[in-house]
Automatic annotation (TrEMBL):
UniProt superkingdom: Bacteria
GO MF assignments: isocitrate dehydrogenase (NADP+) activity
Protein name, per record: NADP-dependent isocitrate dehydrogenase
InterPro entries recorded: Isocitrate_DH_NADP_mono
One GO biological process term: tricarboxylic acid cycle
Length: 64
């Protein structure tokens, strides 16, 4: 169940989340190939590409 604090933060910032996610859609991300030599760099790139909204990330991290 979602806490009231997290729900209020989400509702207050929902427009920011949606805008950032919308802007990120369809943009090319260089992942250095499927099997990159440096997994840590590739994993960081993938994480950044899959979580483009810092504001949403901060809210989601409150659930952990």
């Amino acid at each position: 169940m979602c806490s009231p604090t997290i729900l209020k933060q989400y509702q207050r910032k929902e427009g920011q989340f949606l805008l950032k996610l919308s802007v990120a859609q369809g943009q090319f991300v260089d992942m250095s190939g499927y099997y990159g030599a440096d997994c840590n760099a590739d994993c960081n790139r993938a994480s950044q590409a899959m979580r483009p909204s810092q504001t949403l990330n901060e809210t989601v991290n409150l659930l952990q």
